[in-house]
Amino acid sequence: MTNANLAGIIESRCQDRAALPGLHGEHGRSWTFDQIDLLAGGVAQALRAEGIGAGDRVAFYLTNGPETVFFLFGAWKLGAVPVTVSSLYNASELAESVAKTHPRLLLVDGRRSDVVAEFRAGSDLPVRSITDAVPGVEPLAWKNETRVRAVEVAADSEACILFTGGTTGRPKAVSVTHGGTRGSLERLARVSTGTDKQGTAPPDAKPNLIALPLFHSGGQHSLLFAYFVGRAAVVWERFGIDRLADLMERFRFDNFFFLPTMVFDIVHAERHLPFAGVKSVLVAGQAISWQIRRGFEERYNVPILVNYGSTEAGHIAGWNGKDMKAGLWKPGSAGKVYPGVDLEIRDDDGNVLPPGSEGEIVVRSELTKGYVDDAEASAELVRDGWVHTGDMGYIDEDEVLWLAGRKRDMIKCGGFQVWPEEIEDELREHPLVHDVRVLGFPDDRLGEIPVALVVREHDDSVCDDRLSAAIVEFARDRLAHFKTPRRIQFVPALERSETGKISRVSVPAPDGGGST
């Protein structure tokens, strides 16, 4: 039986490029692939001394940084299951995450000592610190470099617990498997490099910046993909324009994987970033607006490629540089369905729909075992091996996937289906709209009406009432009447989740101001 253990990825790198740098921190320190494996071995040895073994869950409440890499691979070497909790969580959110996932041990560092102290006051879960700086918490002796071989695990063994972004509800704890994660990496490698084999990057390849945090599925997949194809990884604490510029000068990256919100910040930054030598930027996590995409590409002359997927289903569709050169790219689409992805479009009754018909995107996947904290939601998510994404879209005659929106975000206005993303894309074209989120609000006559929450550009010459009317007229010129927002509400900012997605839940109720 082939060992599906994800720790085998770093062990493979030790076989073909052990002495090459494999990990860089943002403050100048680096580690070779061999040192990563040895430090992961030290972690495995220390966790084993705490009684952790195969199948045991270990919660990570760690500031994003290189140390998290050692702990991920160290846990996997034992067959243990990291539960990657956001380091931004407060004590109650940490407690909720632990209650959902039932880990045997919690690992912390010295950055949130107040949160850890509050958590410990209400929990009897054993806690160990990876530093010496947490009062009252025993340090874990993990820095003894040791060679530990990864235990054998089955393909369907639980590899990690990840939390969804929570843009349309409370975050759910998603269980992903070793084999499913490897399969997703192989599909992306096949599309990106033309092979599903590990270690295809040349020894002098530029490192990859892991822009997303490692408690996030995008961050973990970015790290694993870099190592899967043989590239080094640069891990930082968090995204920031000045931090990004400094690292770009230092490493001369040739590609990036960003969230749309990161691209938004780059486009609006006063500082011009050194994108010379960057071949492409891959964007995933949520839809990117045409206005932001065009602004980035015009400013830096670097193409944006899109990737569609999810924590639960893995990599599903996207475009790559070869597609662009071959003229296959279709503007506005999610991308061509990746080879090896079994995808169907289904109606509400589960019937498979033909090309061109809109329905829910359903994917056969072995990546997830479901939600560990919600049996009912798990039963809805995975049915007979098919993951129901909750995304609506259609496939055209060229096997290109087009997205319409989230099934539960759809607004039903007077019997018509209205997708918020379509309205948002149009409103962002208005010169005085800085950002926007469209939501459905109850209406006695129409069931729901679209309401736009707008962050306006600063312009003292136009008052709110005049701008509100102008935005509605702008929308009417570009959209069907039933899609036009019935009300504009100006807000100072749009609340975002910890992963940068704009929340559709935490929004103010319409106050009647700026209505049409």
From TrEMBL:
Pfam families referenced in this protein's UniProt entry, alphabetically: AMP-binding, AMP-binding_C
AMP-binding enzyme C-terminal domain span: 422-501
Superkingdom of origin organism: Bacteria
Domain AMP-dependent synthetase/ligase: 15-371
InterPro entries given in the database record: AMP-bd_C, AMP-bd_C_sf, AMP-binding_CS, AMP-dep_synth/lig_dom, ANL_N_sf
Alphabetized UniProt keyword annotations: Ligase, Plasmid
Gene3D superfamilies: 3.30.300.30, N-terminal domain of ligase-like
Family: Belongs to the ATP-dependent AMP-binding enzyme family.
UniProt-listed PANTHER family: AMP-BINDING DOMAIN-CONTAINING PROTEIN-RELATED, LONG-CHAIN-FATTY-ACID--COA LIGASE
Name of protein: Class I adenylate-forming enzyme family protein
Taxonomic lineage of the native organism: Bacteria, Bacillati, Actinomycetota, Actinomycetes, Kitasatosporales
